[in-house]
Amino acid sequence: MKNPLDSGLVAVNDTAEPEVRRSADSSERAYNAIRKLLVEFQLKPEERINEMRLAKSLAISRTPIREALNRLASEGFVSLTPNRGFFVRSLSTEGLIDLYELRSIIECAAFRLMCERASDEEIGGLRSYWENLVDGYRDQPPDDILAEDEQFHMLIAELSGNPEIVNQLQAINARIRFIRRIQIEHRSHDNDLVAIHSAIVDAATRRAAEEGMELLRKHIELTVSATQQALKDALLRVYSPSEPSARQRRGKVASPS
């Protein structure tokens, strides 16, 4: 016997699906728009983000704006302070060296374990990943370079067979992602990055652990120096001499969250 509610249920489901899709589209549009504002410094470092103003200027309701900001917080582009709201990340270099030192230790350990534990097929997967990217790597938008570079290093962490290494590297990436995004677009960005990645893959294929670890160490050290220069230039771009930073106005240095 036909259920008299069946037709009504179908109607509700048919209506709900486009609503969900529209909500997802709005959230994605909000995410892309706010991320662009951040990396172009139209929202200044340490500035509190006004959700209502964003919603009005982007012609998007506050719910997708909030969803986008939560996503950006998880990616390290903004920070969320309880009872205060979302803030643009600081451009402070304080703590940067410590984070990159920890990144170097973790990635070198991951490379050594990968050489010991990963199968030939798994290391072949790392090589295939890089070979599929290498030709057009330099010519991509900065966001794509950042995502693919992160994935390259995360693949090494995953092949270590240690999930805690993966978790720790993900946490570090979240804290330096905004700063790395700035550096990738800066003139100091490592033009030898393709060659270094290729050399790391070659060392992995030969299971040359010490060689690969040394390549990673030097690569990360160069990235630290380049990032510090990129941050100095970014601060000059953002703040004019007549407009001190929020950090200067408060009379203290903010550390990255």
Keywords:
257 residues, 2 strands, Four Helix Bundle (Hemerythrin (Met), subunit A), single chain, mainly alpha, 2 domains, Arc Repressor Mutant, subunit A, globular, 10 helices, two-stranded antiparallel ribbon
Describe the protein in words.
There is one protein chain. By secondary structure, the chain is mostly helical. The protein has 2 domains: 6-88, Arc Repressor Mutant, subunit A (Orthogonal Bundle); 96-238, Up-down Bundle (Four Helix Bundle (Hemerythrin (Met), subunit A)), CATH 1.20.120.530. It contains 10 helices and 2 strands. A two-stranded antiparallel sheet has the order 1-2. β1 and β2 form a beta hairpin. α5 (120-133) packs antiparallel against α8 and α7 crosses α9 (209-238).
What count of structural domains?
2
Strand and helix order: HHHEEHHHHHHH
Count of helical stretches:
10
Q: Estimate the global geometry from the Cα principal axes.
A: globular
As for the CATH topology of the largest domain, it is Four Helix Bundle (Hemerythrin (Met), subunit A)
Name the beta content range. Answer: under 5%
Structural class: mainly alpha
Note the quaternary state here: single chain
Order of the strands making up the biggest sheet: 1-2
Low-confidence stretches: 7-12, 242-257
CATH superfamily of the largest domain: GntR ligand-binding domain-like
CATH architecture of the largest domain: Up-down Bundle
